[in-house]
Design a protein that fits this description.
heterodimer, A: about 110 residues, alpha+beta, hypothetical protein PF0899 fold, three-stranded mixed beta sheet, three-stranded antiparallel beta sheet, 6 strands, B: about 230 residues, Rossmann fold
Chain lengths: ~110, ~230
């Protein structure tokens, strides 16, 4: 369970941005890949805890889950996988480990009071 | 009520770790040391595997190890029996190693005096997958007694690793380990992954894996010369 330390990094990052821009953060938008090794539910509850006694207390974490996208050499195309347990092209069945997307753990936007 | 405003930022949450990992990788490259990390669940035989590895490599290579654990220095004491320099990283309550811990543990070590450095992560198949430690090669270990479906249960760690090692094969018959199923599951979550099977206790299969490490070290050094 490393979600709490990840949540603390997110809060720290948010705080830095808020101070630098002189704004009040209402929400942090995060992209979370299926292969990031981070569990959404655990991260959400950790976030609340990590925000306590910081200027971000009461803010929300908005998580956009990012599916795994691989490149299929046979089809010469990007394909979205529906499972983390089967790295094969869903169209032609060719095994592929060329991951294009799905490892994200990235803050993409801040929602601030207008 | 006013509409909230969105400001676009693109920041990797683990950037701090990645920055240190990149610096470590550069430091390892400059010193010509090949860095191999080990991840597995607790009890898969990482320490026995590493003790065997260090003992057998020592006549030919200058080897050393860092071992991570929540508490105790038992593993470092065990590994020191191999005669190789060993340092323990005690993480306290943290369930994984981070690049900064590796950096700190290396303080004062002359990397130029090493050929291969092993980094044993905390026994955990979940959290270590998110953290780059600057290593050249990541091994994921599963013992035959853990069951063939470990790769399907922990696909992320298998995806973060380069090579899989099936350990304790001396127990395979007793636990009716199904090699075909295990290989199939590894290939399902990580197509093309190289797999070794061995027993640190009997030595079966160890030579093949050590030859592979030696070859990778040679590749690394010849690439550095070019």
């Amino acid at each position: 369970m490393h979600e709490l330390s990840i949540a603390m990094s997110i809060v720290e990052l948010g705080q830095e941005e808020a101070e630098r821009r002189g704004v009040q953060i209402e929400a942090i938008h995060l992209k979370l890949g299926a292969l990031s090794g981070v569990v959404r539910e655990a991260l959400l509850s950790s976030y609340e805890l990590a925000c306590e006694d910081t200027p971000l207390q009461g803010s929300r974490l908005v998580v956009e889950e990012v599916p795994i996208v691989v490149f299929c050499a046979h089809c010469q195309a990007r394909r979205t996988l529906s499972s983390t347990q089967w790295f094969c092209c869903p169209e032609c069945g060719t095994p592929t480990s060329e991951i294009v997307q799905g490892k994200e753990l990235e803050v993409v936007a801040l929602e601030i009071a207008a | 009520m006013t509409q909230p405003r969105l400001i676009e930022v693109r920041k990797n949450v683990l950037k701090a770790n990645d920055v240190v990992a990149r610096a470590l990788r550069e430091q390892f490259r400059a010193a010509g040391v090949f860095v191999v990390s080990l991840v597995s669940s607790p009890g898969s035989g990482k320490t026995a595997f590493l003790e065997k590895t260090l003992t057998l490599l020592r006549p030919q290579y200058r080897v050393a190890a860092l071992v991570g654990d929540l508490a105790t220095e038992n593993d470092a004491l065990r590994l020191a029996r191999s005669g190789a320099p060993v340092r323990q990283i005690t993480t306290g309550t943290l369930c994984h190693l981070e690049a900064a811990m590796v950096q700190k543990a290396l303080d004062g070590w002359d990397l130029n005096q090493l050929d291969i450095l092993f980094v044993e992560n905390v026994g955990n198949l979940v959290c270590p997958s998110s953290y780059d430690l600057g290593e050249n090669l990541r091994l994921v270990l599963i013992s035959v007694s853990e069951g063939e479906d470990k790769p399907l249960k922990y696909p992320t760690i298998f995806n973060s690793a380069d090579v899989a090692i099936i350990t304790k094969i001396d127990l395979a018959a007793a636990v009716e380990f199904d090699y075909a199923a295990a290989y199939g599951n590894i290939q399902a979550v990580r197509p093309g992954m190289q797999v070794f099977q061995l027993s640190a206790k009997t030595g079966e299969g160890v030579e093949k894996y050590l030859d592979f490490l030696g070859a990778r070290l040679t590749d690394l050094r010849s690439a550095a010369v070019v």
